[in-house]
């Protein structure tokens, strides 16, 4: 982040905002904003309650299933689109439409289709995450340098061998980048899905806290979600860094 | 249609030798509307280095890739060791202008890649690759990745990979074009040493006249698009002399001049 030409580290700027929040909270100006310290304190208590733990398990499960499906479908579909013009023609329009569509608006439709339960949340996670994974996998496969393909062929690789030894490995950085963005979108999906369904997991908790005006708990839960999303992203990023040697050659 | 067309510059009669490893017969190639090659007839003999020389866009890479079996010709035929070429084969190895190294693999794995694809076991792969890594002067860099190497070193990896599969024919597409001038000379000298050592058939592409004259046993001059053979030149140079003496050799200088003269009417 840059402010007046100075580079401010991410963490430092977060700290500034936290302090600002604390001051506004202490001033007791707005009922909706309790001080940061009491939010954190509440958070520590919250994570020890069984209702939070149960909600977390449900949330993690929906997220895990939805993401596995999104990766399991998205990566192969993207690769097929990158390799075969026919698949690309059939699917391209849909993928491009969905990747930027306001998917939250679809969730009520999903609730009608899949009921007010975990299935709807899983489908929401899937729909939030899958398209960017498809697009990045497709881009990765299409960006394999021609000379690398020719190199493989000239030394005797063909079909499956060429695919596994050259195409897949060459596309891996893009595939991983797609998965990383997909994970973050999936977190959004699980939260939005649960809030709209509002009787399971964190959605139920959010509903409860906001209805009973427990703003500390409300913000604490939000904070936890933020941290988890950032940690997830950081985790995949370190994984991407481990295969950094790709970047140097491009 | 192009078969009957008469080239603007009459090529000298197809060059023959007693032991042709690669035969190129009436090759024509068009990309859509672009006529890249017209009626190419050539023969390449064992143990010699032949250079395809011509301005950029004249179809040098195309011809090399047709010989490699990577690009199909519209008409004509390639024979290697008497057999017609239908695709890539183990008796030919290619060195790419942009190196074409696998960025995710070490120098060792890159050099051994041709052997890996042939199902050679790991120990044997390592033995052969180590030898050629050493031969191109990269000993000690076996576990490095391509992005850790300079352009010149990367092309040494590409050359070692081509040698490691022990092909009869080496196809080199402007291998030194991405190498800076000082290293280029070193490369050219190393190439001559390897030609002498390996007794293989080299087909070398360049657009540098000096480079062509310095390294070649024979130079095939291609005309601008559509590529046709405009002249075949056999430099008469004493290769036993030192590199600096070769570059001052009257034969060397005369050949460079001769090629300039041949090209002059294209420039005008
Ligand atoms: N894949 C391709 N598709 C269309 N045109 C091509 C392709 N490859 C080469 N060409 C054209 O064919 C001509 C010869 O190209 P090339 O063999 O690369 O020349 P050179 O290697 O001598 O510079 C050029 O005009 C180039 O634009
Ligand atoms: Mg070229």
Secondary structure topology:
The complex is a heterodimer of chains A (250) and B (268).
Chain A: E1 2-3, E2 6-7, H1 10-26, H2 36-46, H3 50-83, H4 85-99, H5 107-114, H6 118-142, H7 146-154, H8 159-197, H9 201-211, H10 215-242, H11 245-248
Antiparallel strand pairs in A: 1-2
Helix pairs in contact in A: 2-10, 3-4, 3-6, 3-8, 3-9, 4-6, 5-6, 6-8, 7-8, 8-9, 8-10, 9-10
Chain B: E1 20-31, E2 34-45, E3 49-53, H1 60-68, E4 75-80, E5 83-84, E6 92-95, H2 107-111, H3 113-117, H4 122-135, H5 151-164, E7 169-173, H6 181-198, E8 201-206, H7 209-215, E9 218-222, E10 229-233, H8 243-248, H9 250-267
The site of adenosine-5'-diphosphate has 12 residues of chain B, from strand 2 and helix 1.
Q: Could you describe the 3D structure shown?
A:
The complex is a heterodimer of chains A (250) and B (268). Chain A is mainly α and 250 residues long. In chain A, 80% of the residues lie in helices and 2% in strands. Chain A has eleven helices and two strands; from the N terminus they run ββααααααααααα. In chain A, strands 1-2 form a two-stranded antiparallel ribbon. Chain A is globular. The model of chain A has no long low-confidence stretch (mean pLDDT 87). Chain B is of the alpha/beta class and 268 residues long. Chain B folds into two domains: 20-91 and 169-263, Rossmann fold (3-Layer(aba) Sandwich); 100-166, no CATH class. Chain B is 36% helix and 23% strand. Chain B contains nine helices and ten strands. Chain B has helices at residues 60-68, 107-111, 113-117, 122-135, 151-164, 181-198, 209-215, 243-248, 250-267; strands spanning 20-31, 34-45, 49-53, 75-80, 83-84, 92-95, 169-173, 201-206, 218-222, 229-233. Chain B has a six-stranded mixed sheet, sandwiched between helices. The longest helix of chain B has 18 residues, at 181-198. The radius of gyration of chain B is 18 Å and the shape is globular. Residues 1-17 of chain B have low confidence and may be disordered. The chains are: A mainly alpha (250), B alpha/beta (268). Chains A and B meet through helix 7, helix 8 and helix 11 of A and strand 6 and helix 3 of B. The site of adenosine-5'-diphosphate (ADP) has 12 residues of chain B, from strand 2 and helix 1.
